[in-house]
TrEMBL record:
Cross-referenced PANTHER family: PROTEIN YMFN, PTHR41287
Annotated Terminase large subunit-like ATPase domain residues: 90-230
Ranges where the Terminase large subunit-like endonuclease domain occurs: 305-529
Gene3D superfamilies: P-loop containing nucleotide triphosphate hydrolases (3.40.50.300)
Protein name: Terminase
Organism: Hansschlegelia zhihuaiae
Bias kind Basic and acidic residues: ranges: 29-39
Single Gene Ontology MF annotation: endonuclease activity
Region called Disordered, residue ranges: 1-39
InterPro entries: P-loop_NTPase, TerL_ATPase, TerL_nuclease, Terminase_largesu-like
Pfam families in the cross-refs: TerL_ATPase, TerL_nuclease
Domain of life: Bacteria
């Protein structure tokens, strides 16, 4: 892992830690006055780490043994409890003891180990009461492992209100709050833990979060936001990770997209506890990954989201094709079939500020090529940072797979003319594109001098989309697609999913809101049309009458 003080880092490794905002290195004087002088002398985070390692594991195979923090847990405690941090956000795979870690911090905070304000208030917030009870049970379990003298200073309430009250050292109260913002208006927490933030309902969750954050300012409190990855980039938890406000510490354990689900190295990036005896073992993770791959569909999506900590939705979605299935079509450049026979040109015209992509498919030989183009503003480096792919677009440009044209938009006519020049004289049998962009296609085809080439309109909805997806999949699985290794296509298919209706019809969609699937869409259009032409019966020559 690396630590960064930049709000928008140029390169973001799979597991990153950083502080955001201009105040990342300036201590907050107002908050420091309220803390015990000993906490300043020894650093609150080191006091917290020392306290956590006096606790005993409350459940599991190691129950009763002393708690030993892993390196990634110590790193989060040090970052989240730094003097200049108000919010600590942790994203990590399921089963890596993030809730247990937060519960231990809640107990230490209630006891005033590093904050001696009187009447301390700690909130355990979750989507609902049952989910919050998980963190509460960890608090109660840690408490039972304390010496008898310490236990006598607590009052635990298991009723309608789940509360743990510390009766000494100024007093401290830990209470459970479900995702209903009205329930804590007027509160003044010194510590708030938002557990599994990505799973909260959007409106109620945002209301609760806003109420918590507004209350923290009254007493210089801080919040810990912990969760596995959200299903998309629009989720509030994703925004905490991608665009953290000043005073935020972010630690994210997320592997690069597009890797096989059973890739061990990336599994360990999302599950660092596996090599330190926390949660599932590496062997179990690989076994579960292979079972999920075999089942496919929502089982694979759920594994990627929960265990690999990837931003993949699990609701009525499945991958268009898996990474392994797509890479089976890749061959060495010198092993590519020839450009023989007519070429089908699949085109996905981009809108303002988005990619335009073209796919070239020769049905007779199965050869496939693809190209993409972005407008010049913003730059490819800035696009990569905002789309969460770092320098991938620049790498595509170096490989000759991605180009830049126009300022804020890609001009359709000149772009299509450039695409045709790439064919170097090969015959274009048909151009396939979205029927809802028909007028733009007609103008672009005329400007590119392709008015004699037939344009085939296809929709991306359930009717046309389902047929095209199935024809594309069949061609891929039957070995009728051969393509040189392409980072553009790998990236596009890694983000491409299908939505499935109750009748099992499919249509293409993005797996992430910032994903770029334009090249995948163009490929599906080109290959599906090529397969239709191959399946059509050959026409017999008419008899000539003399």
């Amino acid at each position: 892992m690396t630590s960064k003080a930049s709000k928008t880092p140029k390169q973001r490794p799979p597991a990153t830690t950083r502080k955001a905002g201009p105040n990342a290195r300036k201590p907050s004087k107002g908050r420091d006055r309220r803390r015990d002088c000993s906490a300043h002398a020894h650093n609150a985070s080191e006091i917290a780490i020392a306290f956590l390692e006096t606790l005993r594991i409350p459940e599991g195979p190691l129950a009763g043994q002393p708690l030993r923090l892993a390196d990634y847990q110590k790193q989060f405690v040090r970052g989240a409890l730094a003097d200049d941090v108000m919010v600590g956000a942790l994203s990590i795979g399921r089963g890596n003891a993030k809730t247990a870690l937060a519960a231990g911090l809640a107990l230490g905070s209630a006891m005033g180990k590093w904050d001696t304000q009187p009447k301390r208030e700690i909130i355990l917030a979750a989507r609902n009461r049952d989910q919050a009870r998980t963190a509460f049970n960890f608090v109660a379990g840690f408490l039972q492992g304390l010496p008898d003298d310490d236990q006598e200073r607590f009052a635990v309430r298991f009723g309608y209100k789940l509360e743990v009250e510390f009766l000494d050292n100024g007093g401290g109260l830990i209470r459970v709050v479900p995702a209903d913002g009205k329930s804590i208006l007027g509160g003044a927490p010194t510590l708030a833990i938002m557990d599994e933030r990505a799973a909260w309902e959007r409106e109620k969750g945002d209301n609760l979060e806003n109420a918590i954050l507004s209350g923290l300012g009254k007493r210089g409190g801080r919040a810990l936001i912990i969760s596995t990855s959200a299903p998309d980039d629009a989720n509030t938890f994703s925004r905490w990770l991608d665009d953290p406000p000043p005073g935020t510490y972010v630690q994210e354990h997320r592997p690069p997209p597009g890797l096989p689900a059973d890739d061990l190295e990336s599994l360990l990036l999302a599950n660092p506890g596996a090599v330190e005896g926390i949660g599932a073992s590496p062997e179990w993770l690989v076994g579960q990954a292979r079972r999920a791959i075999a089942r496919g569909g929502s089982a694979l999506s759920s594994f990627r989201n929960l265990n690999r900590n990837e931003r993949v939705s699990t609701e009525d979605r499945s991958m268009l094709v898996t990474v392994d299935e797509w890479m089976a079509a890749e061959v060495a450049p010198d092993a590519l079939p020839a450009r023989a026979g007519p070429c089908i040109l699949g085109v996905d015209l981009g809108g303002s500020r988005s990619m335009s992509a073209a796919a070239f498919y020769w049905p007779e030989t199965g050869r496939l090529e693809a190209m993409g183009t972005f407008p010049a503003v913003p730059s490819l480096a800035d696009r990569g940072a905002s789309d969460g792919v770092s320098g991938r677009y620049l790498e595509m440009q170096e490989r000759g797979e991605l180009s830049v044209m126009g300022d804020n938009t890609v001009p359709p006519g000149p772009w299509l003319a450039q695409i045709v020049r790439h064919l170097d004289g090969a015959t274009v049998a048909a151009i396939v594109g979205d029927r809802f962009r028909y007028a733009e296609f007609v103008e672009a085809i005329d400007k590119a001098g392709l008015s004699r080439v037939p344009f085939i309109q296809r929709g991306f909805g359930w009717k046309d989309g389902s047929e095209d997806v199935e024809r594309f999949r069949r061609a891929l699985f039957d070995g009728e697609i051969k393509v040189a290794p392409s980072l553009l296509l790998r990236s596009a298919f890694a983000d491409a999913i299908v939505l499935v209706d109750p009748a099992q019809n499919c249509k293409l969609a993005k797996g992430r809101s910032l994903g770029r699937i334009d090249a995948a869409a163009a490929t599906v259009l080109a290959v599906a049309e090529g397969m239709r032409r191959k399946a059509a019966p050959a026409r017999k020559a008419r008899a000539a009458w003399v």
